[in-house]
Structures
1.
Amino acid sequence: MVCKTCSIGCKTCNKGVCTSCRYSFALKDGNCTSCPENCGKCTAEGSCITCQDGSFLKNGMCVSCGDNCMDCKSDSMCRLCKERYDTQSGKCILNECNDVNKCTDNKFCARDPAGNKCVTLPKNCVDADISGNCIRCENIYGVEDGKCVYCAVYCNICISPKQCTKCYENYFLKNGVCTSCSDGCRSCESATKCTRCGLGYTLDQDICQKQGPRECSNSKSCPSGKFCLYYPWISTCETCAEGCSACSDIKSCTACINGYRLHEQTCVKQICTESKPCESGSFCEMKSTGNACISCLKGCATCTDSSTCHQCAKGHFSSRGVCAPCGQNCKSCQDQDLCYVCQDGAEMVDGLCAQQVQRMSGGSIAGIVVGLVLLVGLIGGAIAFAVARKRKVQCSIQGDLEVKKENIQLQVDDDSLWSKVSK
């Protein structure tokens, strides 16, 4: 099976017979015939139903609107002109402008390489393209979708609402956004760099300092131990550095208090002096930061520096320039094998100190014996007291029984006597 092309103007066909036609053709007896000129759609009899652009329908025919007109009601009333033409009194007039031919009706001459054109500017717009889309707005407005809308807050000039190019006073531009300057700053390049200050503030090293009272001046000096810190906006009496009794600024001392000495305009602390030496085992070292007591070598009692010992401490002896410890339990020695004096609780044995064996003295033994005798006596006395108490209790009970027995016998005898008398 082979597909064949339909006839001219035929959109669909069946076995060479047209069933529908293309634009500007009409179906008649299985064929597509061309519509009259400028017709968009027409009947089989050739009567226009719709017209192409640039023409209008009149008595079943399409009549041309006229030159450069794209839509009209009649040949004398154009409603839409071609590009670069404007409608004036129903006619299409070439819209060209230059420095001589000015635009009228408050229109703007849009520049274009293909030809200038007078366009109506959008609201708050100062420049537009040939299509009438704004490309530059008045201050505080930015371009968005060809129209002028307000810039972001604190922005004076912007390309778009989100892209500021110049901020209001007291704000600086950062990444297209206006950010507040520091306190007292009227104009700044960043949060830390002010270029102009507000009333009551003075610019000092890119910072606006608030003006304050004058505590000191050339005619009003500060008390001892303080200096006048002067700024264009304020002057105050500040304390000199530690140990300084007189200074011109915090880094320039001229006199020191007791216990400090002056070194290159700085007062350094003197922990030790000739009249105040260091403790045993240390020496006085003078430094730029002050005199200080430095420890001698280990075991050294007297030294002039950290590497030379003049006298070893107790329990040590001099050996090759260092102080070594004496032997065990030794208080004073010539070397590690020859002790002069032993520590308490140790005794000398062939130049060495040995720990004494603990022996019990006679007094200690006598004390222990007396203690044992007293303990035995106390135990015996306690036993004797307990036995005596027991016997006393038994005797008391037996006596009470004898008395009761005698009382009973006496009562019996009395009863017998009274019985005999009655008889």
2.
Amino acid sequence: MLSLLTFARYLFPSHILFSNLLHRLQSMDSALPKPQSGACFIDRLNNDTLYNIFDTGNEDAKCQQLLHESERIAQVSRRWRTLAEGSPRLWNYIIIDSYHKPARTGRWLALSGRANLTINWSWSLKESQKEMQSQAELLKPHAWRVQIFRLVTEGTQATEMVLNDFLPYLSASTTIRTLHLEATSQVRPSIQLKGHTFPALCELQLTNIDISWDWPRGILESLSIQHMCRYNLSWEEFFSILSESPNLNRLKLQGMETTQAWPSVIVGEREERLASLPRLQVLHLSFLLREQASLVLEHIRAPALSELVVTCHDMPDIAAAIATASSTLRSLTLRFAPRAESTVVSALSHALPCLEHITLFSNAWDGREVMDGSFFKAIDTCRALVSLRLRDFPLNGQHLISMVKRRRGIQGCSPIKRIEFENTLLWPRLRNRLVELGVQIINADDKGWSIREDDESS
């Protein structure tokens, strides 16, 4: 015989119970009369009670996952299935995945009424154009209620044809807020959407996609462009997107290949042309050329910036200038060569009162180059720092231990609680000494740079 809690755990094995649902089930289970022999607990609940148990989507975002469980619920209770199908309010959010058969997709679309849709498509080479087209045709009449659209594809010609046919329907939706398009192969789908707009789009992520369209702006909150041919996005247009997106809080750019469309001469106009992004909190610039990253960094003002990642070559000077200008910065990631150590030291020597985490990538390929103690002394000025990550970092163990000890004796200075090493082989004695000082050590692997043996005695 099942109890309410047992039934709920059967429904939600991965996330056990949501807090509000757990409280509701516990209170109801204790209030119910003892069941008669052979009776199932669900037979003791009237329709209103069942409805109250499962109508939780508006209270807790996680409860939207309840809709994934509908078929298992139906297997347990025909009454619940009848109730769910007859109660459109329950269907406030449904998810359509690529593996759903067209007949099943059509059935849930018919049942869901006006519920918002999330579409998660993952297409590989095994999917035929006919299968993809059948999914798209089913969803065309419902494009107006799609809220989230995510696509991961291997970038076949069939995929390109289906997307160019379906996305124009989606672009007119006033409900779609999230659009993720990703190609996982070297073949890049080319999408033509000129003349189409996404009026309510807040989150945009493009990975390895060639797209020609009228870029969304105005209410854009998150923008991520990765491995994208940029001949369709000039610097002028990109700057216009930033200037017209005051609500932008996340900006990530990675691996743009060419600089022809982004001339460096514009840098001279930076004082007159600044994009003010008062809500920007996260800025990631990864594997860009110096000219590309310079244009972005020198043309924005982000007073609320809390996370800055710059892993471009030879960029510590500009990135450091941005870091020192932000009194709200909490996380800083820089990639630099040992010859640029003085620039990084200069940046860290400025007061960064909120900085809690630093990640440093070294471009050094010569193991003889080792950071001197000035770098670790500069870290002492970051009083809130508690976490440090070093990758490909030519390290002197004595300097590291001295820094950890020194911070423990500085009034108002947070001790280092965690150090993560990647591509750095730690000698056992150094590891043990850091642990004795209360530092949590994480060693990603045992390859790459090793601490010099003459430092082990420290």
3.
Amino acid sequence: MDRATCLRSFNEIELYCDEHQISFDKNLFDFSGGNTNLVQTPISAEDQQEDNLIEIKISSFYQQAIGCKEASELCDAMDREINVMNQRKAWILVDPPENAKILGNRWVYTVKRDENNKKG
């Protein structure tokens, strides 16, 4: 038996199409409320809470980041960030004193999107 899938936003539709290798055209969907042929179905409190959640996948490591489909954009962003830090002379590389505790750092790899799921 087929299971119905309820998609309530452009973001959900685009993700569904992406996962199922279906071409997505935003112009084919009308969420304006002007469509009078809609059937109202009750939405559970759990589904309403789920609607307010946004899935954000953040690569934990450089190796994961360069393996994702946004890899070139992430590498460009890293290059821009390093260039800005160099221009602003954000650090000076020196040898640490003996017994010094060295603070680590890490990059956070995420692709920011706006409310219309456009990359920001």
